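Meet today's protein:

…
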Amino acid sequence: MSELNDEERMMLEQIGRFAKLELEPYAPSLDEGEETATRHLKSMSALGLMGLNISWDHGGIGLSGIALYEAVELIAGACGSTASMLTAHFLSTDSVEIGGSEEQRERILPLAASGDMLGAFALTEPHAGSNPVDMGTTAVKTERGYHISGTKCFISNAAYADFIIVYAKTAPELGARGISAFLIEPKEVSGIEFGLPERTMGLRGGHVFTVTLDCVVPLSSLMGTEGSGFRTALSVLDNGRIEVAAQATGVAAAALEAAIAYSKERKVGGHPVSDFQGIQWMLADCAVDLSAARALGKSAAGKRGTGKRYSTEAAMAKLFATEAAGRIADKALQIHGGNGYTRDYPLERYVRDLRILRIYEGSSEIQRGLIARSLLRDQ
């Protein structure tokens, strides 16, 4: 596992201060109201956060995998909704960096890194969530361009995005080998409609939308070659799953910190509840879960950019971190007693924000399947 360099450590210190001072105070209002985490776009862009994952050559910060993990963790610990908005942007820019042409990279990535363009990643469909090969969205090549028609759902940032990476079938009869990726700028194309923000249980400031497409996009919108989209999506999701693990450990760390502080303040029979062995054991279990989740996450993150495959490691990191974070937040709420169940304390928000992490970018069941297939293939 590589060490952070001095520049990365300084960057993480800046992000930590920013998250504490600028993001954390607004997290409750993003959850309670209808405002979107994009309210932070200007200040995040000024700090370079929109380009943390983008290479230096294309105008980004180009953090190492481990530094990027720690950055996402810091942001998520302060505001899960903002981390969700940011990592969705990362999925879109990773798609361009991995699968786009050099022209697309040079045109889009510097603007995305500066925050002048916000991205969205449109893969999931109403009947093709866990298995993208079942997608119904098609892209038919015509003289005017590609006619794309279909529906995507639960797409973060979509209605606010300046570019959307849309995955569609150019050759439906070929299954996964017939899926292609397209870089679409919705403000330049007619025939794209967005639903209202979904009424979600958690991450309520990280708005997600249904996107309906019946549009013609230029031939130059195709990323890579026809049929290469599924490979791009798989590589992007490896990165995304590590970032979901970082979101999970970030929120879980905040929950554990809150539980420790509350256990020292709350008194029963004249003693802080932190004196009681039952509470101490709960805190100890939380600490072990958090340390193990971070170790798996950073181990996978350390392989990013090495050229080696890390699909199994990414699946393990996401699976363990998201489920461990759920256990941590639940114990932390229990330690708060009835207060934890009220909105006067952040624990119930942490529980709600964490729940989706076991579902999106591949559910826990999907991750178990990926891990098992890897084990069986390698024997």
Observations:
- Residues 91 and 268 are 48 Å apart (CA to CA).
